[in-house]
Amino acid sequence: MAGALAGRADGAIPRSAQAVARPMPEGFLSPFLIFRQYASAHMESSQQHMPQTADGVPDAIQACPVPAANAAGVAPAAANRAAAPVADPSRFVARHVAAMPKSGIRDFFAIASQMRDAISLGIGEPDFVTPYPVREAAMRALEKGRTSYTDNRGLGTLRDAISAYVAANYGPEYDPATEILVTIGVSEALDMALRAILNPGDKVLYHDPCYVSYSPSISLCHAQAIAVPTRSEDGFALTVEALRAAWQPGCKALLLNFPTNPTGGTASRELLGQIARFAQEKDLLVLSDEIYSELTFEGAHTSIASIPGMRERTLFLHGFSKAFAMTGFRIGYACGPAAVMDAVLKVHQYAIMCASIVSQEAALEALLHGRDDMLRMRDKYRERRDFIVRRFNGLGLPCHLPRGAFYAFPKVSVTGLDSMTFAMSLLREQKVAMVPGTAFGTAGAGFCRASFSTSYENIIKASDRIGRFLDSLKIDSLKTD
Ligand code: PMP
Fold it and tell me: Is pTM, for the whole model, over 0.85?
């Protein structure tokens, strides 16, 4: 690749480049030359296994001379050239970021998307296109020339609608002027909230297994993520006993997600009451990610923010990606007591400014008129859930019934394979992508996540292939349909 980018072997400038070539000022280093210098230096250095100092910085980099600055503090061009990068630019990456693994889910998407005929049960995104009236609202906004920034908190009309929607469906009332912030999905809401509340070294409790971004988002704030393991024997329910066992001095917040990605677990009002009492006793702020709440299949969803005494210590995080099939619009919101939301707003103002006005107009339409479409999609997910769970159990992979979200979480360790080996072998041999449970935390070991946000046909085909894969393992103890 370096060769291809480094130009022709004879050094001649290709005709297409000549057409735009302009004389450059003396001392100018074109990006092309910088890349070529970097590429050759990097190739040499990686071949030589450059010796490292204790803090991981190659010796050669530490020894690299710094060009003398002139009176104006600017390094002369010639010296600049001498100091051009000679070693791995990864030395610039912060230690806590370097130590962070990339999301395990993406690896599986990437592999599956390269395979012809692969079926992905890996994706955590609705397979439905955003309902037409919502798309139309976005188009109308563009037609009307609605292309500006909005108030940092979001459009007033949208905040009014969010306030009414949250009060009607979840209970707590939030003031649109001071207690609601429109964000770029729950992803941004969570990031801004964590950045607004955490001092370096603070600790945040979260249940494991959970959505892949929780622990890294906490670490990015120089805070400490404290996993609270949940157990398959309890249907991965979070228990107050487990919370108590995990709690340590310095815990400031508790991050919850019901229904849960990846287990599909929900929390009863009674359980939420117990968790609320624990949060009050330990003076924790609760960050409640309720992104799957509309996709609750069994019973009614309860928000912890509606438990007496919790509104003032809860940030309610929600968005449009899942229930309204609006992942690409990147739109969500956070609600909470004004004193905390003011701090969240500050971070959002400097980092983001505001969510896209087009997405905000679309979100408004979803809240005002999207309910029927949302329920139609939820019913489809429920049918698929019933089918895939029945199929997994029939194939001998024990699978509890997810009560919400769109993920099944079968126990694959009954095959004798760990979750990563199971997922990789299944992908290689039958071209079905499932995500190893360990991508969601250590408590996910022995399980794989299968998303049923794909067509019924795909789910049928995928489960047939999984059946063939299990047959090939020749395990007597597995039942078959
Ligand atoms: N929270 C959970 C639990 C999720 O599963 C996801 C997406 N998979 C998000 C948040 C991020 O959602 P958004 O598209 O609103 O950023």
Answer: no
